[in-house]
Structure formats: C-alpha cells, structure tokens
Amino acid sequence: MRHLTCAQKVIPNSFFESEIAIYNNKYSFNKSKIMNKTELIDKIAAGSGLTKADSKKALEATVAAIKEALVAGDKVQLVGFGTFSVNERPAREGINPATKAKIQIAAKKVAKFKAGAELSDAIK
User: Fold this and answer.
1) Residue 33 carries which DSSP code?
2) DSSP letter, residue 91
3) HSE toward the beta carbon, residue 49, CA cutoff 13 A
4) Each residue of 46-81: pLDDT tens digit?
C-alpha cells in the first residue's frame, strides 16, 4: 500500500479512494479553509478600497493596539464582533504522564476572545 505524507501525517491511499479530500496547509479534513494574514490583507483591501500596503499597515496597527491593551490588562470590546480580554489561570497541581509524579503548574495569564451576538448569529 502506498502512502502520501502531508503536513507530518501519513494518509493511506484508501482514504483518497473512498472520498475526495483536499489536504494541504490551507485545508483540514473537515474542509474548512484557514485564512492566512496575506489573504486577510487582500480581503481588507478589496472591501475598503485601500491599497494592499495600506491594508497591511491598518491590520498591523489594529493587532498592535489590541496586543498593547491586553498587555496593560484592559479589555477590547468591538460591538457586534466580540471582546478580547485577559484571563488569569490560578496555579494548580498536575500529573506528569510519563512518571505519574505530581507536579505544580504555575499560574499564568492567557488571552481570551468571546464572540459578540452579531458574530455568533452570523456563524449559526
């Protein structure tokens, strides 16, 4: 049996014989496309009438502003889209799966996004 290796996964040919599937860096097996930064910049340029260079600057400025606010501990709320915030996870006890020994997992802060009502409704 011949195998195809793609993105560090081994996919047997029988998979391709049973159904048609596109699998590369932009597609997963559930056929949902992943938009990368360049594609997002193209969409912004097309929708706003800006050049691609200006769209890239606008996107980078937006991401930098959101990141700066989160680092400062602030929330960023875009009505209809969603809210970016920082969530603090407390320290906890875990188990090392290799040795089964108990380990202490340190407290940390993580970025969080909660979709707004309009975005949630659009996805449904």
Assistant:
1) B
2) P
3) 0
4) 999 999 999 999 999 999 999 999 999 999 999 999
